Amino acid sequence: MKRVLYLILSVLFMSSCGDGNVLIQEDPSIQKAIDIDLIEDYLADKGYNDFDTTLSGVRYIILDQGSGQAIDESDHVEFHYTGFTLSDTIFDTSIKEVGDSLKAHYTENPIIIDGKGFTVFGNISYTPTKITYSKSGWTLPKATSTTPGFIPGYVDGIVATFKHLNVGGSSLILIPSNLAYGQNGEGYFIAPNTPIAFELYPIKVTKQ
Q1: CA 59 to chain centre
Q2: In 3D, which of 164, 207, 178, 167 has the Cα closest to residue 75?
Q3: Fewest Cβ atoms nearer than 10 Å: which of 27, 128, 154, 157?
Q4: In degrees to the nearest 10, what's the CA dihedral of 158, 142, 199, 192?
């Protein structure tokens, strides 16, 4: 029922163009409400009833605190990640076992676009992301073809969860579309206005 109401409100949010046509404009607050509804439905379906929220709106859960070395200010941290949509479709990973399985799947079942087959995950690498934690926040490398891109919600999720994790732990972050890839989407798997999620796994801490 909520989503039907959001759709009606988004259709009503219109303005007139100079040529007499009507231009439908999206109200960001409506899309944000839809995303929050989708994210919280996902959490409920998975049985995650105890979650926290950043000021920006990222939902997060500490899945496993871990028993290894703690992450402190000024530490260099290496971590693996897996990114997926709320339909549990993986769109990126730095974990070899996950990536190899995806390669095999899409080699046997290529995605067909305009009559052409595409094998995704064909050139994936398995390099952990390296960051530095300091009093002023996280120092993050620039996005590359082998990282998911440091979109705002991804950064917020790292900041919110890593201070609670030790090596060997894991966290789940769920990102509304306005803090992810927005109205443009990204690639084949992330359509416009799609909330996304990441599981994050710290694997190494180096003290400065």
Answers
A1: 11
A2: 207
A3: 27
A4: 110
Reported as a single tens digit per residue, the pLDDT across 8-54 is 334 334 344 445 555 455 677 899 999 999 999 999 999 998 999 99
Please report whether residue 131 resides in a domain: yes
Whether 188 is in a domain gets the answer: yes
Structural domain includes residue 24:
no
Domain range for 121: 49-206
pTM above 0.85, yes or no: no
The tens digit of pLDDT for each residue in 87-126 reads: 999 999 999 999 999 989 888 888 888 888 777 777 777 8
Could you please report the per-residue DSSP string of 51-114?
-EE-TTS-EEEEEE--SSPBP-TT-EEEEEEEEEETT--EEEE--HHHHHHHHHHHHHSPEEET
The token duo for 121 is 């995950």
Instruction: Please list the residues that pair with 94 across neighbouring strands.
Output: none
Spatial distance between the Cα atoms of 60 and 149, rounded to a whole number of angstroms: 19
Give the span between the Cα atoms of 131 and 155, in whole angstroms.
11
Q: Quick check: helix, strand or coil at residue 10?
A: helix
**Residue 16, amino acid:** S
* CA nearest neighbour of 124 among 140, 107, 141: 107
Whether 30 is covered by a domain: the verdict is no
